[in-house]
Design a protein that fits this description.
alpha/beta; Rossmann fold; 8-stranded mixed beta sheet; 8 strands; binds nicotinamide-adenine-dinucleotide; Sc_DH/Rdtase_CS
Length: 259
């Protein structure tokens, strides 16, 4: 997809990956971005910073807890109303709170599913949309178990299963319409990792799995992968990985018709 002139809605974009994705889209002359986040202070600050850098009204912040059905629906309709269309949706907001695991599943999986259905509703060419792309942010914890964060790992596995199943169905029943891909980063230095370090640091299980020093990928690598998925129209139903070992690559799965 050509990014120039496109409109995006990105959840959890007040900081971290979502903010970096927004900035990469703006560098390529995206028309506007709805930044959807529950952190009003950081969301407003990011709106001000990016508008100053890339031009007035390039970014609009919408405060929203993605785990609220009404608030998420409202954020989609406000972005559409403001920028007159939506072409790119990134379901990125996430938390890693194992003590409040129901909330983790609500934010990291249920809201991603709801955001995907809303994106398809708004972008589907058969429903008045222009087609587009959805990118769901999973994690390497969605491909392999993360023993220190089982709820987070379950939610991220769910994101992959849901997105791949829907993409395969779309290839058959609704092709050339809305592309759907997943992005699975390794650990990266953002706020969520700071929270998770409470589980990881000085934990012998973590040390046994990840070694004495946690390997991370730069946020810029994850943002580069995101742009690749947006721009490459051949990518549909793919699972991109960003890892310190192999950089950006795609996970190969067995063809389900051969299972
Ligand atoms: N950083 C990593 O190590 C890492 C690795 C793999 C996957 N991820 C995933 O990447 C995504 C982005 O995380 P990040 O690393 O940028 O972390 P981050 O903490 O910097 O950003 C997460 C953003 O989501 C927002 N958010 C959280 N709960 C929300 C809610 N209920 N409603 C609306 N917004 C909410 C936060 O306010 C924040 O702005 C998450 O889904 C995370 O699970 C992160």
């Amino acid at each position: 997809m050509k990014i120039q002139g496109a409109v995006a809605l990105i959840t959890g974009a007040a900081e971290g990956f979502g903010k970096a994705f927004s900035e990469e889209l703006l560098k390529r002359s995206a028309r506007g971005i709805g930044i959807v986040d529950f952190n009003a202070a950081k969301g407003k600050a990011t709106e001000t910073e990016l508008n100053k850098k890339y031009g007035e009204d390039k970014v609009r912040f919408f405060q929203c807890d993605v785990s609220s059905k009404d608030q998420l629906e409202d954020a989609f309709s406000k972005t559409l109303e403001h920028y007159k269309g939506i072409d790119i949706v990134c379901n990125n907001a996430g938390i890693g709170d194992e003590l409040n695991w129901e909330k983790t599943v609500d934010v990291d999986l249920v809201a991603v599913m709801r955001g995907t259905f809303l994106a398809k509703q708004y972008m589907d060419k058969n429903k008045g949309g222009r087609g587009g792309i959805v990118i769901n942010i999973a994690s390497m914890a969605g491909l392999y178990p993360m023993p220190l964060a089982p709820a987070y790992s379950a939610a991220k596995h769910g994101v992959l299963g849901f997105s791949r199943a829907l993409a395969i169905a779309d290839k058959v029943f609704n092709p050339e319409n809305v592309r759907l891909n997943c992005l699975c980063p390794s650990f990266s230095e953002t706020a969520i990792l700071q929270q998770m370090k409470g589980l990881i640091n000085h934990n012998p299980v973590a040390e046994a799995i990840y070694g004495a020093e946690l390997q991370t990928v730069p946020v810029s690598m994850v943002a580069e992968g995101f742009i690749q998925l947006v721009e490459d129209d051949s990518k549909h139903g793919e699972v991109m990985r960003c890892t310190p070992q192999n950089g950006i690559d795609y996970k190969k799965f067995r063809d389900i018709s051969k299972l």
